[in-house]
């Protein structure tokens, strides 16, 4: 029997996309996942919208102006981009590529337009999850209780929710967020299983070879 243990299994990072209408709990779930799991890196988007109270530049978004956004997009620096509620949002490509290459997972809080563009460019690496609110009332409650947006913006987000929800069929998993803890457990179960897919563990070949050598 060989004395050397098989090496750790090298894995390929995945792209975890969370989409939902605003107020369905996606941001809370994403923050919790990032706090609990050191193997996940957030994709920090560029946005041209105004910073909300409590948000931090460079943590929640890179807040930039329209001219800088268009320049970045036209240089080809963005993996995907979309216009949402009159503002531009986009994913800078470089940090995502670096993370994947190092075997880290990247978490995306992006809308259906972004998920669709990533599906065209990186389907094999994608895990797409859509979060639904349990009811229209619950969504309204969440949008008004967080006190982040003026009433006209809340009304706009409620009107946009049905458009966003209509894309649920383009996702691999759909979770109903009636209970945050339960929804979070479902999310981590998906992540655990998706990381264990054979195709996401290129190091298995070396591992099994070393294992067999010891038999
Ligand atoms: P919010 O302004 O509430 O932070 O985000 C509004 C919407 O824009 C959300 O649905 C969010 O998922 C989406 N979003 C945020 N960043 C990006 C991005 O980089 N690309 C795309 N396509 N959507 C984004």
Care to describe what's here?
A hairpin with a 2-residue loop joins strand 5 (78-84) and strand 6. This protein has a single domain (15-202), classed as Rossmann fold. It starts with 14 loop residues before the first strand and ends with a helix. The protein has a five-stranded parallel beta sheet, with helices on both faces. A four-stranded mixed beta sheet has the order 4-3-6-5. The protein has helices spanning 26-36, 66-75, 93-101, 112-122, 136-145, 151-165, 180-195, 204-213; strands spanning 15-19, 40-42, 46-47, 62-63, 78-84, 87-92, 105-109, 126-132, 173-176. The chain has eight helices and nine strands. The chain is of the alpha/beta class and 215 residues long. The mean pLDDT is 94. The longest helix is centred in the C-terminal third of the chain and has 16 residues, at 180-195. 27% of the residues are buried. It is globular and about 70 Å long. It binds guanosine-5'-monophosphate (5GP). The site of guanosine-5'-monophosphate has 14 residues, from strand 5, strand 6 and helix 4.
Give a topology summary.
Blueprint (H helix, E strand, L loop, with lengths): L14 E5 L6 H11 L3 E3 L3 E2 L14 E2 L2 H10 L2 E7 L2 E6 H9 L3 E5 L2 H11 L3 E7 L3 H10 L5 H15 L7 E4 L3 H16 L8 H10 L2
Guanosine-5'-monophosphate binds next to β5, β6 and α4.
């Amino acid at each position: 029997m060989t004395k050397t243990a098989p090496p750790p299994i090298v894995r390929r990072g995945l792209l975890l996309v969370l989409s939902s209408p605003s107020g369905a709990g996606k941001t809370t779930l994403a923050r919790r996942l990032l706090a609990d799991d050191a193997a996940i890196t957030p994709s920090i988007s560029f946005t041209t919208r105004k910073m909300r109270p409590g948000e931090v530049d460079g943590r929640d978004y890179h807040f930039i102006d329209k001219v800088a956004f268009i320049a970045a997009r036209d240089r080809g620096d963005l993996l995907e981009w979309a216009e949402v509620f009159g503002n531009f949002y986009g994913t800078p490509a470089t940090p995502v590529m670096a993370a994947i290459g190092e075997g880290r997972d990247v978490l995306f809080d992006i809308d259906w337009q972004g998920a669709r563009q990533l599906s065209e460019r990186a389907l094999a690496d994608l895990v797409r999850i859509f979060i639904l609110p349990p009811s229209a009332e619950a969504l309204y409650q969440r949008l008004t209780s967080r006190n982040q947006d003026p009433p006209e913006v809340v009304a706009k987000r409620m009107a946009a929710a049905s458009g966003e929800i209509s894309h649920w069929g383009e996702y691999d998993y759909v979770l109903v967020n009636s209970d945050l803890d339960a929804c979070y457990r479902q999310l981590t179960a998906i992540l655990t299983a998706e990381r264990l897919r054979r195709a996401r563990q290129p190091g298995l070949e070396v591992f099994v070879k070393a294992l067999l050598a010891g038999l």
